[in-house]
Specification:
mainly beta, two-stranded parallel ribbon, eight-stranded antiparallel β-barrel, 62% strand, disordered N terminus
C-alpha cells in the first residue's frame, strides 16, 4: 500500500512539473482583428437610350428614339452590409444617329440585400445632373436636368473566400455576403436619368456593366 501511494505521488509530481515547465501546452495565439476597408471603385461600359419629341414642318411632332454607348466610373463606401453611398459619372457618345452626347453624374444612397454568399442586389436612390445633346433633323439643342435619379443592380464577388482573412475577427458585424471581401467583382445595373422632362418630353435611361475592386 505504501509503495502504491509513493508511485501515485511521484506521478503527480512529474505531471505538475510538466505543466509549469511549459511541457506540451500549446501557446495561446491571439486572434487578429481585421478592419475591413469600406471603400470600392468600379469602371465599365454603359448603354444609354434616349427618346424625345421633335417638331417637323409643316406641323407635325415626331417621337424620336436613339441609343449610344460610352463609359462609366463609380466609387463608394459601404457603411455596413446593408447600406452604402456611391458616386458615379458617365458619358456616352459612340455610334449614335442623332444623340451627340449623354453626360451624367450624381450621388446615391445604396441599399443592399445579399442573395447568397457572392451576390448582392442593390438599389440607387439619389440626386443627379444629366445633360443630353441632341441633333433633331431640324434642331440641334442641349437639355439639362438636375433632380431625382434611381436604379437597381446586381454585384457578384470574385474574391477568394477561403483566404486567411476568413479566420480573423472583424471589428464590425459582417455576414460575408455580397461585396464585402477584398478583391474583384462584377456589376450590372439599370438607372433612370430623366423621365418626360422639358418641353420635348425627354426620357433617358442607361444599362451599365463592368468590374469593381474592394479595398
Amino acid at each position: 500500500m505504501k509503495k502504491t501511494i509513493q508511485t501515485m505521488a511521484l506521478s503527480s509530481l512529474i505531471a505538475t512539473s510538466g505543466l509549469f515547465g511549459g511541457g506540451n501546452i500549446a501557446p495561446v495565439v491571439p486572434i487578429e482583428e481585421i478592419d475591413p476597408n469600406p471603400f470600392y471603385v468600379g469602371a465599365g461600359l454603359v448603354w444609354a437610350g434616349v427618346s424625345r419629341d421633335c417638331f417637323c414642318p409643316p406641323d407635325e411632332t415626331t417621337r424620336l428614339k436613339d441609343s449610344t454607348w460610352g463609359g462609366i466610373i463609380r466609387a463608394g463606401y459601404d457603411y455596413n452590409q446593408y447600406v452604402g453611398i456611391e458616386v458615379r459619372a458617365l458619358q456616352s457618345s459612340i455610334e449614335s444617329d442623332w444623340v451627340d452626347k449623354t453626360t451624367h453624374y450624381g450621388i446615391f444612397v445604396k441599399p443592399m440585400m445579399p442573395i447568397d454568399e457572392q451576390m448582392n442586389i442593390y438599389g440607387l436612390l439619389g440626386y443627379g445632373h444629366t445633360e443630353v445633346e441632341t441633333d433633331c433633323p431640324f434642331l440641334k439643342d442641349t437639355f439639362t436636368h438636375d433632380g431625382f435619379s434611381y436604379g437597381i443592380g446586381l454585384e457578384y464577388d470574385l474574391s477568394d473566400r477561403d483566404s486567411d482573412k476568413e479566420e480573423g475577427a472583424y471589428d464590425r458585424p459582417i455576414d460575408r455576403h455580397g461585396e464585402q471581401e477584398k478583391g474583384w467583382g462584377l456589376f450590372i445595373d439599370y438607372q433612370n436619368l430623366m423621365h418626360n422632362e422639358g418641353p420635348d418630353n425627354i426620357k433617358t435611361n442607361i444599362i451599365s456593366f463592368g468590374i469593381t475592386y474592394d479595398f
